[in-house]
Amino acid sequence: MDTSTRSGPLHRHRLPRNPGHRSFYRTVTPPSCMPWWQVRKLYLEISYITLVHIMERFEDMIREFIKSNERAKRRPVNNHGINNFTEDEIKMITKNYKNPIGKGAFGEVYRGVLDDGSTVAVKKYICQNLKDGFAKEITVHCRIDHKNVVRLLGYCLEENALMIVTEYIPGGNLKDLLHGSDDHISLDARLGIAIECAEALTCMHSLHQPIIHGDIKPDNILLDENLGAKLSDFGISRLLCMDETAYTMHVAGSRGYMDPELFETGRVDPRNDVYSFGVVMVELVTRAKVNENGMSTGVTRNFTQAIEKGKTARAMFDTKIANVSNMKVLDNIGKLAAECLRRDIKKRPEMKDVTERLRALRKAYCQQDQEKTGRWSMKNVNRKGQSISASSNSTMYYKLNNLGMFSTWNAPRNFMRNAGPIVEQMQNLRVFTREEIRKITNGYSSDVIAKCSSCEVYKGTLEDNTLVAVNIETAVDEAHSESFTNSMLIYSIILHNNIIKLLGCYLEADVPILVYEFAANGNLQDILRGNYSFPLGIRLDIAVGCAEALAYLHSRSFAFVGANVTSANILLDDSLVPKVSGPLFICHSISSTSGDVYSFGILLLELITRKQGGYRNNSPQELRKAYMKKGHTMFDKEIAAKADILILERIQMVAMDCLKLDALARPKMAEVAERLQRLKNVESTGSELRELSMLRRLVASSISKARENTTPAT
């Protein structure tokens, strides 16, 4: 056959271009004299090179994104898109100050509309000779980027026209809701307001240069139509140096809310805000005014004295929420408020601890209510007294609302922060919409297959009936969000049979919602804890698969490490094939990979002893002493047959090498995988492999049936 006829259009090939260029390829035609088999070989070589270039390009992009995130952690947060308005532009926005919506000692607030139709609030200052203080407020406010802080959109700095433009919050402030209306406010709603304020303060206090708000009070807590809280008014806020104690001669604050330590000594500290927040918590649970007409009402003093004397403050709780079922939660809120109000500033908790405790109380409260009624409707009220309800599960509604799932204004910002432009270029990763996520999870009512304090994983179904796992993280602090996004990007470029596959994501929430392949048999921890039959051959298969996955992650082309290599993060599919999951990070040193090796050594011990938990609290020396003392008696009796003792001893030796005290003396994961593979080959050969394959199917089937009646892992 004339091979020259094979050089037509069917044999035009794509060669890699500069990986940074928008187009990856150029088209060439092989010489007409080239034999067909050489053409085919060339095609395969070119395809491989092209794939490598594409992967390197995405890997470089992702590495740069993650590095930029890490650099960002060491510098202040900037609120981008701050506009410098002229006075004429402000007049157009407010229609010449036509709609006043508030007034205070500082000046007046007007409602306005920008060119894009969005409603804004314009704060016009009465005192126009305070440019330095005004500039300081702008400087502080623009450093804060949090969903529970009113967004700064712009300012006007013209002569006799000092003004600030912020997003418009339609629900008024907390003071008006608590003391200016008779609207019913559920305990659930009050907890939600407290948690959102606490999260904002935690974010401010944890910045590279911490920010002290300085004037936390109900007047400065604005509420949206769903009673979502937003901190406002940074007029007396202060920036702190990280390692220095600051003092001020110009003490400012609000009577009844100002920290006595600040008033008496001038000491500026994040725990000044903790004190003020404690006063707000007292108001939330008592609905009593802290001061009236500029004079203290004694509410805070009476409340703390009751707690300090070992009594409860139950007589002071708002009667509309002080029922028997709420009393335990209210008592705990009262105790937390009293801790925040301690005179000794060193004995007050930090805001991050306050936030965690409030979240725990909210979770306990919602679970308690669900246990009584199964499903219930979370009802709040807006400023007009209208009911706002979420007919879905209340706990999940709260978590999704916290993630920004029911708001749209911050969607573009979240999309950019969550690496949306990079993810969009990845053909193997699907970007889901909010409605698609809702449909996949059947309105967040499908089976919860795993849950912990920071996330819930739902079983979902795609359009083609493919089963998936939808991971919804509920921890929304900035550091967690960044590391979670980085981990997502790493999963998007790795491809290994023993690493869980990321199928897609939703990027417009504060923390990305991830859609993974579904692992039908749960995690290894549950299998080891259960009473399932678990032959040695299957355990060795799992060990080899996990070792190969970690070796792949540690390889030169990727150099990633797992943050938490544990049996709980080893998932098993319907054939008991292991899938490594959990957070992934870029490896910065050999000590990073050696940490994975150590964790894998513990995993091996769990596989051969079926004992879980205690090992992770022991040092390498303690583990070695335990094995020297107990020897074979530590092996799981199910697999400790005489014929298998030699294999078990060799697995034990591999584990001991992984657990060496000197990190540099531990083997590389590639070496560990090779040693375990050799043991697997010795343990199963020829017909035994076929028997093991049949046994695996039987064991997987029995585990799947048993798991149908079990509760989600916690």
TrEMBL record:
<dbReference type="GO" id="GO:0004674">
    <property type="term" value="F:protein serine/threonine kinase activity"/>
</dbReference>
<feature type="binding site">
    <location>
        <position position="124"/>
    </location>
    <ligand>
        <name>ATP</name>
    </ligand>
</feature>
<protein>
    <recommendedName>
        <fullName>Protein kinase domain-containing protein</fullName>
    </recommendedName>
</protein>
<keyword id="KW-0547">Nucleotide-binding</keyword>
<dbReference type="InterPro" id="IPR001245">
    <property type="entry name" value="Ser-Thr/Tyr_kinase_cat_dom"/>
</dbReference>
<dbReference type="InterPro" id="IPR045274">
    <property type="entry name" value="WAK-like"/>
</dbReference>
<keyword id="KW-0808">Transferase</keyword>
<dbReference type="GO" id="GO:0005886">
    <property type="term" value="C:plasma membrane"/>
</dbReference>
<dbReference type="GO" id="GO:0007166">
    <property type="term" value="P:cell surface receptor signaling pathway"/>
</dbReference>
<dbReference type="InterPro" id="IPR011009">
    <property type="entry name" value="Kinase-like_dom_sf"/>
</dbReference>
<keyword id="KW-0723">Serine/threonine-protein kinase</keyword>
<keyword id="KW-0067">ATP-binding</keyword>
<dbReference type="GO" id="GO:0005524">
    <property type="term" value="F:ATP binding"/>
</dbReference>
<dbReference type="InterPro" id="IPR008271">
    <property type="entry name" value="Ser/Thr_kinase_AS"/>
</dbReference>
<feature type="domain" description="Protein kinase">
    <location>
        <begin position="434"/>
        <end position="714"/>
    </location>
</feature>
<dbReference type="InterPro" id="IPR000719">
    <property type="entry name" value="Prot_kinase_dom"/>
</dbReference>
<dbReference type="InterPro" id="IPR017441">
    <property type="entry name" value="Protein_kinase_ATP_BS"/>
</dbReference>
<feature type="region of interest" description="Disordered">
    <location>
        <begin position="1"/>
        <end position="22"/>
    </location>
</feature>
<feature type="domain" description="Protein kinase">
    <location>
        <begin position="95"/>
        <end position="361"/>
    </location>
</feature>
<keyword id="KW-0418">Kinase</keyword>
<feature type="compositionally biased region" description="Basic residues">
    <location>
        <begin position="9"/>
        <end position="22"/>
    </location>
</feature>
<dbReference type="Pfam" id="PF07714">
    <property type="entry name" value="PK_Tyr_Ser-Thr"/>
</dbReference>
